[in-house]
Amino acid sequence: MTFPIWINLGFIQLHPHMVFEALAYFIGFRVYLYTRSKSKIPAEQGIWVIVGAILGAAIGSKVLYWLEDPLKTLENWNSYTYLMEGKTIVGGLLGGLIGVEWVKKRVGITRSTGDDMALPIILGMAIGRIGCFMTGLDDHTYGTPTSWITGVDFGDGIPRHPTQLYEVVFLLLLGGSLLIWKYKNRVRTPQSSFTSRTIPDGALFQLFMTGYLLFRLFIDFIKPTLHPFVGLNNIQLSCLAGLIYYITLMSKWIGKSHSIPKEEYRNVNQE
Fold it and tell me: Is the pTM of this model over 0.85?
């Protein structure tokens, strides 16, 4: 196998990273439009949420990349090529979260919107990671050298952990688990003016972020990046901060019944 694995259309060859990144955004957005809870927020506000997520993700992914090697970033602060060439998914997720919350305050959205985004994001990330794998060494998302049977030679003669594929498998398992959990906890039959056979707004997104941040916290130990922060890298520090935030949020509802007004029951069952 030769990397990068170009997409050959006969009359043109396309770089895999460009193709799969475009597919990730397109398919993820279409899935969001199809599956989002129309009863929660109007379409216009939903578009503003997407705008906030995109802008926040763009900024967050860059800032965290620059923190990967702070000294190198300072040395290249005036290099446009260096500043623009890299990005991180964790930075994008956390930056997107900040962007969404800022937009929600500006347009007056008080309900959680994360649940609608969890599964589209998972699908988009899985598609994007396939492009990262097909790009090979140039993408800098591979793992450390390994003698495992899963080792892949990306072109330099050294078998390495295909951490991109590990992530794809993890994301598919996480997405499937969240889908099963979501439908097992949907409202069944209201016995009174309130029912407790449901989950609170935001729970699905909180579980997704907790699961993914845990995965990244551990998988980055087998990535050949600098770990200058007490044995951790910039991604892992961000994961720890995010985990503290989401575990705090989940502690408010895990193990507890959650009730919704009877008038909302019809909307839940129509989603």
Answer: no
